[in-house]
Design a protein that fits this description.
Helices cover about 35% and strands about 20% of the residues. It is α+β, with helices and mostly antiparallel strands. The strands form eight sheets. Strands 3, 4, 6, 7, 8, 11, 12, 13 and 14 form a nine-stranded mixed beta sheet that branches.
Length: about 850
């Protein structure tokens, strides 16, 4: 139970109310006037103004306090991680080794594990009436669980204070299935409240147990939830890559746990088995790169800290031929983006041991260079994981570990085992030290090149490049620069821009591929120097391994850097080269959200005198629907023969479009005719096998050319509906699951059935147009009516598909791509730094085979190819 003050709204500024005091001789002595109305409002703040938020009501009232931002996707994905963390804690306790996460077609998510299963028995010391099951209490009470007692979980990565109860509160639907003691137990919730509660009397006490729906030989917990769109209004779609990044990390950090991720929306699937633990993690990160030391350094151990707590340490390190350091730090599976005491201990041990080895072998002395810590970390890939009871972090985001007792054990373990590694593997040691010496020499060469370039004034911003068409505004926050390919496109952009705040920088040809170039080579490229000078920041990452300390984001001259290239192969290549440059050499610009990609329209459409530019197929469909409904009427037929027109017809058309969109999306892996049957009124119930058999009979009547059967799926312990068809001599089957029937997509189709079933009768017809130009068509149902109207709209419109910016004149370029009031820009963000690093290495690096494999795998997905 939480008690909090009710927010008091700020007083409105009126002529007789509260003033700012601006312009008065002594505003510090100003006393605002309170009129009678305001006085009454103040007196209303009494005991009634104090709210007591019970149970999960506090979570729904202030979701951001519990899961983070609900508008940018952070909080949405955090729901999944809260559930997965419970399963991981079961694995840390030695009771779980398999976790399956599924994104269902309706954007709900299920997490299934083979742990012990949440306790299902009724908790007889429960203070509520009726007495509830332990599972219900865990899902409806904040701070209820097994992690607050170290006898249950010694180390927990999921102790965020709220866990799955928070997920329950913020879900429109949550279904908990527990397989335990040979039985399948189920509880259903909506927005935190139990649905279809069962009550009975045991020994004279009223109790509310979980519903038992069958027997099973399996064990574990399954949580299936659909986020509440009332809470997640702006961003409620799960991103596969965001989930994959975290689940991949967890599989490597928890050796022996198999984690699978499936996306029913696209059919994509990954199996994160986490082979070799953090060693496997380093192997994964370095895939596609040129490896220097084939034998990964691996340290595993535990030490007693100064506070007599046991600290577990695991480290893996490997060097590659690249120039960037990549060190990932984790505490109890939680990532620390800013490092902390464990990273300090690691670096101290590395510096001391490697310096000693170099001194002992006199390599640096012979090479006549001085080695720094940055030189040692160039091309290093490292994963550091520590297990700490009750760790301390610098903030609620846990981005930095501040537990002082962790540094000593990390430094001690790494020092001893790294020195042994260098002594026992002289071939690897020679390669590593050679890389470090090469980095030291390159740092010195880069310093000389930087000094030479600075004398020319390039890095100091002395003079702007001649091809830059600068803007008049001097405040960087109000300025933007378009980077365009070629002088011709640059000419159109210069003519079409608003010179007050928009600058244009045309680049000739394709810029240097910085993935394969050292820092000193960058400074010999005219196009790179032109770009650096125009932006004004300098280059590189301050204190980085290049030895360059010139980069200063505060000197950035434009806060929006917009890449605008043609939608063809060359344009895509130039865009990739520019993104590689920014990601590798100016990563802070990407991290701060300064990089954008312009999105010119794909279509220009014309209907009558109206001309519009549209971004993609969805916009085109909406436009055609709007045109189709102009002067359209659907006559329902039958005895009523009610004409449907205007807002009524528009609302029906929108509902029909939603249902058709669901059918089109699910039709890739479900039987389309079965989906249409549901939209036409076939109701399904898959709660039991008997219900599934009844539903199969109902569906069979609609699908005479298919074989429909209700079955029990032993893999999921749930009934299913299997639809089989013979196609070219082969049997093709698709399945409708219980999760689908309980999901939002089935709900949308069922809602369409209620709306359209029986809407049109005998003699129904549809008309479009007026007077002599009116056309008419007899139809059997609303779907036929809409198909005919869309066909008529397509005939009444013309469309042009754009391939490149060169097809537009300056006015069109401004109207579609550069006018802030109507344009679409994509901000470049890095959700998965590891995957981003791998993609840039694969596409732009030296290894050919990974790039060829990528092209072969994704060739059919490519668009905008101008052949």
């Amino acid at each position: 139970m939480t008690e909090e003050n009710k927010p008091i709204p700020a007083p409105e500024a009126t002529d007789s109310g509260v003033h700012t005091g601006e312009g008065s001789a002594d505003s510090s002595n100003y006393q605002p006037t309170i009129d009678a109305h305001q006085a009454g409002a103040s007196e209303a703040y009494g005991e009634g103004s104090i709210q007591i938020l019970e149970g999960l009501e506090a979570v729904r009232k202030r979701p951001g306090m519990y899961i983070g931002d609900t508008s940018d996707g952070t909080g949405l994905h955090h729901l999944v991680f809260e559930v997965v963390d419970n399963s991981i804690d079961e694995s840390l306790a030695g009771h779980c080794d398999d976790i399956l996460v599924t994104i269902h077609a309706d954007n709900s998510v299920s997490v299934v594990d083979n742990g012990r299963g949440i306790p299902t028995g009724v908790k007889m010391d429960d203070k509520h009436e009726p007495k509830r099951s332990a599972a219900e209490i865990a899902l409806t009470e904040l701070h209820a669980g097994g992690k607050f007692n170290q006898n249950s979980y010694k180390v927990s990565g999921g102790l965020h204070g709220v866990g799955v109860s928070c997920v329950n509160a913020l879900s429109k639907m949550l279904r908990l299935t527990v397989r335990r003691d040979g039985k399948v137990h189920v509880l259903e919730f909506s927005k935190g409240f139990v649905q279809n509660r069962i009550t009975e009397v045991q020994d004279g006490i009223e109790v509310s147990p979980m519903k038992v729906i069958g027997d099973t030989e399996r064990r574990g917990t399954e949580v299936h939830f659909l986020p509440d769109t009332d809470i997640f209004q702006q961003n409620n779609d799960f991103h596969y890559d965001v989930l994959a990044k975290r689940l991949r990390e967890l599989s490597f950090l928890n050796h022996g746990v198999r984690i699978r991720l499936k996306d029913e929306r696209t059919g994509k699937e990954d199996d994160f088995s986490g082979a070799d633990g953090v060693r496997g993690f380093v192997n994964f990160i370095n895939k596609g790169k040129t490896i220097l030391n084939p034998n990964i350094f691996h340290a595993l151990g535990d030490r007693q800290s100064d506070q007599n707590t046991n600290i577990g340490v695991e480290v893996a390190m490997q060097w590659n031929s690249g120039y960037n350091e990549q060190v990932l730090c984790f505490t109890n599976n939680i990532p620390q983006r800013d490092g902390g005491t464990h990273l300090t201990g690691l670096r101290a041990a590395m510096t001391r041991v490697i310096n000693k080895y170099i001194d002992d072998t006199e390599v640096a002395k012979k090479a006549k260079v001085e080695v720094t810590g940055d030189d040692m970390r160039e091309g290093l890939t490292c994963v550091l994981s520590v297990k700490v009871p009750e760790p301390k972090f610098s903030s609620q985001t846990k981005d930095k570990l501040v537990s002082s007792e962790v540094r000593g054990p990390v430094e001690d373990i790494v020092s001893k085992l790294l020195y042994d590694y260098l002594q026992e593997r002289p071939a690897d040691a020679k390669i590593i030290v050679g890389k470090i010496i090469e980095a030291a020499r390159a740092r010195e060469a880069a310093r000389k090149a930087r000094d030479m370039t600075r004398r020319k004034g390039v890095l100091d911003g002395m003079g702007l490049p001649g091809k830059l068409a600068d803007c008049q505004e001097k405040d960087p926050a109000g300025c933007e620069i378009y980077i365009v390919e070629g002088d011709s496109a640059g000419g159109s952009a210069k003519q079409g821009r608003d010179r007050k705040f928009q600058a244009i920088l045309p680049l000739r040809g394709k810029i240097l591929n910085v993935e394969k170039a050292r820092y000193e080579k960058l400074l010999t490229s005219n196009e790179i120097l032109t770009l650096i000078t125009a932006l004004g920041t300098g280059i590189g990452k301050a204190g980085g391994s290049t030895g360059n300390d010139d980069f200063d984001v505060a000197k950035l001259r434009y806060h929006r850097i917009i890449i605008m290239t043609d939608a063809d192969v060359d344009g895509a290549h130039i865009r990739t080269l520019l993104l590689t440059f920014f990601y590798r050499q100016m990563p802070e610009l990407v991290e701060r959200g300064h990089i954008y990609i312009a999105q010119p329209p794909l279509y220009k459409v014309k209907a009558g005198r109206e001309e519009l530019y549209l971004q993609g197929p969805t916009d085109l469909d909406n436009f055609l629907l709007r045109v189709a409904l102009v002067n359209a009427t659907v006559h329902t037929g039958g005895e009523a023969n009610t004409p449907l027109t205007g807002d009524t017809l528009t609302e029906l058309a929108r509902k029909h479009q939603v249902a058709q969109t669901v059918i089109a999306r699910l039709g890739n892996f479900m039987d389309v005719s079965a989906l249409r049957a549901i939209a036409d009124g076939v109701a399904l119930n898959l709660d039991t096998v008997a219900d599934a058999e009844v539903s199969a009979a109902a569906m069979q009547a609609f699908l005479p050319d298919a074989e429909v059967a209700g079955e029990f799926d032993t893999r999921t312990d749930k009934p299913i509906l299997r639809i089989s068809r013979r196609l070219h001599g082969n049997i093709k089957s698709s399945v409708l699951t219980q999760d689908f029937v309980h999901g939002a997509d089935y709900g949308a189709l069922a809602e369409a059935a209620k709306t359209f079933k029986g809407l049109l009768g005998a003699g129904a017809r549809v008309t479009r147009g007026e007077g002599e130009r009116q056309k008419e068509q007899k139809v059997a149902d609303f779907r036929e009516a809409m198909d005919w109207l869309i066909t008529q709209a397509e005939g009444a419109t013309s469309r042009q598909r754009y391939k490149g910016l060169g097809e537009m004149n300056p006015e069109q370029l401004w109207e579609t791509t550069m006018d802030p009031a109507v344009r679409t820009l994509l901000r470049v963000q890095i959700d998965d730094a590891i995957e981003a690093d791998k993609v840039f290495t694969m596409l732009m690096g030296d290894e050919v085979e990974p790039r060829r494999e990528f092209i072969e795998t994704n060739a059919l997905r490519a668009g905008n190819i101008d052949i």
